[in-house]
Structures are given as structure tokens and as C-alpha cells.
């Protein structure tokens, strides 16, 4: 494999900037991948993007994104989580950090890296060591009492997205109740109601992301705290 | 064993180990591991092959990291092996880290396992440099292969590939250097490696097969004496790299290759 003959005597320059890292989490089937695809479609012409997916069935999400022609293959990486999707985004973020940094190395400079979690439950949340901001995605078909149940995703995410509003009437979910309950536990943090079926561009969420990027200067802000510990950047 | 080494041995160390099954996932898919009895056999076999080699490499790395200010002993031990590489070694022995890297490759015939080893090595190095800063860890980061052929499976596999081009140091080398940085001996580094070679796989089996975790823990306890014996043997001659154990496990190698090409993978390896 030539491991002893490919030594590069010129160490890579330390990263002077890195992309904003945005986590998208939420229960199975709530629309995380559809939202990721929507954001990529809406933002790809104005931002340099890449995506890391953590779906338990490995290629499902990556295939979805590729089929939809959202991003080129080499901008999408799938990470396996050993049956523990929450561990991979919260307790042991090693594989996700590795994937994010690899995408940044390959496509530097990137403006935005989206890390989509595997489907989990209401207790899932991203580590601050992995992402700068996080979106939690619920859907109305889980029932309108879900926001009242709380959990870190509902209460502490930077943006709560309640998806599939087109189904609300069919399943008897009261959006006003969801908005009221979410507001009660989230304070000033925003909540957006979406129907990705009716608005495939997720216009409101994309605008929120643009706002985050405006207040989070890129690509010339400080390196990530873990960057100094990376391989080949002593 | 002191607390620093307990931290290094802990499965909660955030170094990505939870996503590697040590071959248990492909073994379960192939029907080779189905219950407690077959898991116990698998773990015993894994310990005496991959476990022994991994532990020996970790012990060698630990010893070398401790001696990183004086490489005369190791140089003498390696003799002619250094003629091609001594020039880039310098006083901190960077070239010797690359020799040790090659020793790992030589004992890891499966490309899939090489890739998995480097992925886990990168992750452990990140944690170790943050937790136990040490010149040996810096040298390892600076002088490991930067690019490495990433194993690719079928057409769908190209989406799976990630990692810093598959480069970075091998896991047992980082584990040994991290043990040294945490104040451990080669024997302790070997113990942590041997222990991890069965506990990670056992944990994966609990998750994949729904085995009774208490029964699996008991099976690990039954193996404890064997783990200690493997660690002792692995650390016997840590400075004679060419003579380090090189037992192979073709079944594990084959499973690792099959795993990379399977349609559904929950674990990286």
C-alpha cells in the first residue's frame, strides 16, 4: 500500500476557516431527509454545501439525496452508528467529526455542512462539539401533544420545525395547540410550521439558515476547537 | 491500574469504537454467530488472533513512545530495516513511526480491516491529543500516512467512503502511544488492547442479536484469564518489531471484506 513511501514533507496549512455545521435531528419519519434535500435545493446556488447522513440503513438517505440530484455524490457521506444514532451525534462524535472534516478538506472552502442524524426519539440532541446550530424536526402525525412532552430536541434546539402540516386535519392535530405548547417550553427560540409536500423548497427554513449564516460570519471565522487535534495538523 | 488508564480502557471513551463490531456484524449476517455459545467461541478465537496481534502492536508502540527521546535502542534492534527510512527519522524518530505503521499493515492483510484500523486510529488520536498531550502523539499525527487507498466496495459503496482519505495512524499504534502518554507500561497497553478486542465485539453482539447482556458479561468474565495471558505474551518483547506475533485469522479477514460489500451495514466494521 506504499504507506512508507508517500510521506508528504509539507504539512497542510492549518485551517483558517471552516463551514457552519448545522445538525438536523428528530424522530423517524418526521422529514429530516426531505428537509435536508429541500435546503440543499434552495441553497446550493448561493452556498458551498456538503451533507453527512447518519441513517441506520446507511445508504437510504444518501441515495435519496443522490436520486433527487440534490448534491454530487462526493459531497454526501454516510456514517454508520452501530445501532446507536444518538451516541454518534452526542456522546461519541468521532465518526461524524471525521466525516465533516474530510468533506471540508475535499471541498474547501465550504459554507455549510449539514449533519443529518439517524431517526431517534425526543431525547436526541447534537453535541456542541459537532454542530454550531441544530434543527429538530417533528411532524404533526405524531400527535399534537408531542411538543408538550418536551425533551432536549423540542426545548433546546435552535429551530423547531413542525412538518407535514398538510396532514393535520386528517389526523385531528391542532396546530395552535402545538404552537402554544412549543412556545411555552422554548421561550424566544423559533418554531416553523412546514409542509414539504406543499413547499418542497422549505422557503422559511432556508431563510432561517441564511440568517444564521449572516450572524455567523463565514468562511473566515475561527477554527473549530477540535481542529488542532486533527491528524497531520500538529 | 490508575484512573488515567481506566479512562483509556473505558468503552465510553469518545473514540468511535461503538460503531465497530470487530467482525460480529458480518458473522451474525453469515449465521456464524447466533447465540451465546457461538459468540463465546467467536470471542475466544478473536482474542487469540486479532487480539494478540493488536495487543503486541500496542505494547510495541507504548514502549517506543516512552523511549521517544532516545531511539538508539530501537534503532539497534531494527538493524537494517532502517537503512531506507532512517534519513527522514531525525532525532525524534519520525521515520520509526512509519516503520511501525508498516508492521501493522504487514499483519493486517484485509484492506477493509486496514481502513477500519486507520479510522479508529484517527478518532483515538483526536481524543488522546486532547486528553493526554504528549510529544509522541504529536509525532504520530505528523508522520502517519496522509493518503491511503480507501477500500471501495460495489457501486453504492462510494457513498460510504469517508475519512481523511483513509489516512492517519493505525489504531493499536495510537492506543500504545496514548497509554504511554497516560503513564502506562507496555504491559498495560497490551492489556487494554486485548480487553478491547473482545469487549467491543461483545457489546456489538448484544445490540445486534438481542442477547442477554448479563449472560454476555459472564462470558467475558470467563475469558478474563485468557485476556490477561494474551496481554502478557503480547508484551513480552515489545522492542523487537519484526518478531512481534503475526498470527492470522482468515475467517475474520474474509468477513471484513464481505461486510464492506453488504447492502445493509449498521457498523463500520
TrEMBL record, chain B:
Keywords: Chaperone, Cytoplasm, Nickel insertion. Gene3D superfamilies: Urease accessory protein UreF (1.10.4190.10). Coiled coil: none annotated. It is found in: Cytoplasm. Pfam families: UreF (PF01730). InterPro entries: UreF, UreF_sf. Its main location: cytoplasm. PANTHER family: UREASE ACCESSORY PROTEIN F. UreD, UreF and UreG form a complex that acts as a GTP-hydrolysis-dependent molecular chaperone, activating the urease apoprotein by helping to assemble the nickel containing metallocenter of UreC. The UreE protein probably delivers the nickel. Belongs to the UreF family. Required for maturation of urease via the functional incorporation of the urease nickel metallocenter. HAMAP family: UreF (MF_01385). This is Urease accessory protein UreF. It comes from Actinomadura alba. The lineage of its organism: Bacteria, Bacillati, Actinomycetota, Actinomycetes, Streptosporangiales. The gene is ureF.
Amino acid at each position: 500500500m506504499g504507506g512508507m513511501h508517500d510521506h508528504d514533507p509539507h504539512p497542510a496549512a492549518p485551517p483558517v476557516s471552516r463551514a457552519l455545521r448545522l445538525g438536523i435531528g428528530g424522530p423517524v419519519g418526521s422529514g429530516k431527509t426531505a428537509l435536508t434535500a429541500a435546503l440543499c435545493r434552495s441553497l446550493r446556488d448561493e452556498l458551498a454545501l456538503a451533507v453527512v447522513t447518519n441513517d441506520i440503513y446507511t445508504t437510504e438517505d444518501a441515495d435519496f439525496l443522490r436520486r433527487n440530484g440534490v448534491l454530487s455524490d462526493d459531497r454526501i457521506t454516510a456514517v454508520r452508528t452501530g445501532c446507536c444514532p444518538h451516541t454518534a451525534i452526542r456522546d461519541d462524535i468521532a465518526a461524524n467529526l471525521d466525516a465533516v472534516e474530510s468533506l471540508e478538506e475535499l471541498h474547501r472552502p465550504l459554507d455549510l455542512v449539514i449533519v443529518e442524524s439517524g431517526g431517534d426519539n425526543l431525547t436526541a440532541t447534537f453535541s456542541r462539539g459537532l454542530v454550531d446550530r441544530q434543527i429538530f424536526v417533528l411532524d404533526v402525525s405524531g400527535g399534537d401533544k408531542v411538543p408538550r412532552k418536551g425533551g432536549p430536541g423540542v426545548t433546546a434546539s435552535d429551530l423547531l420545525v413542525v412538518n407535514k402540516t398538510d396532514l393535520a386535519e386528517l389526523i385531528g392535530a391542532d396546530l395552535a395547540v402545538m404552537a402554544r405548547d412549543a412556545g411555552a417550553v422554548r421561550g424566544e427560540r423559533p418554531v416553523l410550521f412546514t409542509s414539504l409536500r406543499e413547499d418542497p423548497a422549505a422557503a422559511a427554513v432556508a431563510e432561517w439558515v441564511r440568517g444564521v449564516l449572516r450572524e455567523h460570519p463565514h468562511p473566515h471565522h475561527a477554527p473549530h476547537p477540535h481542529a488542532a487535534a486533527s491528524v497531520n495538523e500538529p | 491500574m490508575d484512573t488515567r488508564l481506566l479512562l483509556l480502557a473505558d468503552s465510553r471513551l469518545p473514540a468511535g469504537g461503538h460503531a465497530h463490531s470487530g467482525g460480529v456484524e458480518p458473522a451474525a449476517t453469515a449465521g456464524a454467530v447466533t447465540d451465546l455459545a457461538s459468540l463465546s467461541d467467536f470471542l475466544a478465537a478473536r482474542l487469540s488472533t486479532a487480539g494478540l496481534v493488536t495487543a503486541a502492536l500496542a505494547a510495541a508502540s507504548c514502549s517506543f513512545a516512552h523511549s521517544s527521546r532516545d531511539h538508539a535502542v530501537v534503532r539497534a534492534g531494527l538493524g537494517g530495516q532502517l537503512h531506507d527510512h532512517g534519513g527522514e527519522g531525525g532525532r525524534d524518530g519520525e521515520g520509526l513511526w512509519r516503520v511501525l505503521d508498516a508492521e501493522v499493515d504487514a499483519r493486517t492483510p484485509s484492506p477493509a480491516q486496514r481502513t477500519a484500523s486507520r479510522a479508529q486510529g484517527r478518532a483515538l488520536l483526536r481524543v488522546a491529543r486532547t486528553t493526554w498531550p504528549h510529544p509522541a502523539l504529536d509525532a504520530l499525527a505528523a508522520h502517519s500516512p496522509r493518503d491511503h487507498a480507501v477500500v471501495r466496495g460495489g457501486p453504492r459503496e462510494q457513498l460510504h467512503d469517508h475519512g481523511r482519505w483513509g489516512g492517519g495512524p493505525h489504531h493499536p499504534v495510537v492506543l500504545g502511544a496514548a497509554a504511554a502518554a497516560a503513564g502506562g507500561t507496555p504491559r498495560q497497553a497490551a492489556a487494554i488492547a486485548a480487553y478491547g478486542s473482545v469487549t467491543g465485539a461483545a457489546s456489538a453482539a448484544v445490540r445486534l442479536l438481542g442477547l442477554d447482556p448479563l449472560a454476555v458479561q459472564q462470558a467475558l468474565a470467563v475469558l478474563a484469564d485468557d485476556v490477561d495471558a494474551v496481554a502478557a505474551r503480547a508484551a513480552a518483547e515489545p522492542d523487537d518489531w519484526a518478531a512481534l506475533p503475526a498470527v492470522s485469522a482468515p475467517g475474520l479477514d474474509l468477513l471484513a471484506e464481505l461486510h464492506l460489500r453488504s447492502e445493509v451495514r449498521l457498523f463500520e466494521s
